[in-house]
Amino acid sequence: MGQIVLNLFIANKFSTEDATGLTATVMVAIGALLTGLGWYDVLGKFAGAGSAVPITGFANSIVSPALEFKREGFVLGVGARMFAVAGPVLVYGILTSVLVGVVCFLAGTGGG
Amino acid sequence: MQSKKLGEQTYIFSHPLPILSTGSVVGKKEGAGPLGSSFDEIIADPLYGEKSWELGESKMVRRAMDLALTKAKLTFADLDLMFGGDLLNQLIAVNLAARHVPVPFFGLFGACSTFAEALGLAGIALDGGFAAKVLVSASSHYQTAERQFRYPTELGIQRKQTAHRTVTGAAAAIIGTSGGGPALTGITVGKVIDAGVKDINDMGAAMAPAAVDTIERHFSDTGRKSDYYDLIVTGDLGSIGKSLAQDMLAEAGYEIKNNYADCGVLIYAPEQDMHAGGSGCACSATVFSGYFYSQLITAELQRILLVSTGALLSPTSFQQGETIPAIAHAVSIEKV
Amino acid sequence: MDYLRAFFVGGLICLIGQLFMDLTSLTPGHVLVLFVCLGAILSGIGIYEKLVLFGGAGATVPLTGFGHAMVQGILEQTKKKGALGIMSGIFKNTSMGITAAVILAVTMAFIFDPKG
Description:
Number of domains of chain C: 1
Structural class of chain C: mainly alpha
Oligomer: heterotrimer
Shape of chain C: globular
Number of strands of chain C: 0
Strand content of chain A: under 5%
Order of helices and strands of chain A: HHHHHH
Helix content of chain C: over 70%
Strand content of chain C: under 5%
Shape of chain A: globular
Number of strands of chain A: 0
Distance between the termini of chain C: 39 Å
Number of helices of chain C: 7
Structural class of chain A: mainly alpha
Helix content of chain A: 55-70%
Radius of gyration of chain C: 16 Å
Largest sheet of chain C: none
């Protein structure tokens, strides 16, 4: 499927900054906007993992259900279904991070 | 009471039941496909002017019904019964449409086999003297199916090459007991067949065994040979399911490669990049109601066997790790 | 040079993700979960930090970077507060990303409609 074309990782052209939080926010904003405009699904068809794996993909996975379920209302639709796709990522990311944290703590290592 | 059954699963009606008219509306992509000109209307807006996709699909159902009625010069008062279905939870597309239609109604869920199922039940009701005019309908819609079965429509994921694309459209047909033209002559009611396929991205492989089972049963019950029909048409096996079915039937002694087509393969052009092809209740419903019905009227085709195929799974059954059960109903439609 | 390395690292990570998606029956959702967990584990072992030093945003932007950020947050807090840090540290570094995502999601839902 030609997914080896990796040019779509716009993310990678950003310079590394100390304010990684800000970078993350910007990436999220880009992903969110592209999702709102209806372009991210077109991008995803072409880029596959290239658009799903970066944090822009994370934003897409949160904004797209929010948009989709807007018709079912903001509380029961947008609110309740927002993490329908990203939920597992957060749940298991947290779980694994805690486990790793426990292991590191017990092993006495701090920081990587 | 004498049974009208022929063989194990087939009913040949005591006289042909003419399909008085059909109505078909499709979405933009279907309209842009190779069969685009055979549909009554192409609705470019997936919302059809409504507030949600579900309401849009429901409006398409009503439109198809209206078209069929107008063409047959009938009104709702002339109809005795309606059979209809769609893919949505609790059949909301057809139910919300039916609330505007004052005709006694049976809602059906057969997944993508709904159209043939409805035609078959209509035939049984008409042949049994329970009704004189029956309307059948089926619909599906890309966005409503995506958000219910798969993912939010704006999510950037890739679909596998074996996956199908749900057809956006609705079709309706009115069947009566007298008159000429293309007529319903029989149905082989399918059994649910589970071939052990779990991959929801490969519905063709899940449904092909059901189609083959019903088709074989049809031929053995009726004693007909595969060349009895000008065309055997499956609903939405797609490119993969189609070749699977063809091979399986050939192994069983039914060589159909010269008179076999699949609505899912026909409805989109390869350039439209719809992967394995179309699917959804509207696939076989609109392709029959538009394309094949007109070919029957002009006598390009004299006899066809329409085999709508459905995958009877739900997101819940899939997530629980269940395999995909499928069903196929075969209806014979002949020019009399 | 920074950009080239970022491009390479980010691209490689996504490439691996794509291979997973194409060659296994794992859904994209599964692959993303796998990646965030991998990032967390590699972070704990200390490998991911080296990847970040080499690849910069190429390592922090993909989802693996998210796992890394969560673990780093934990480790920083455990240094300061001991065991309590395990629970309090996860979102220290990732807070901005998640908060932004939620706020923007609701905003986008206000402004836009899904087009299908």
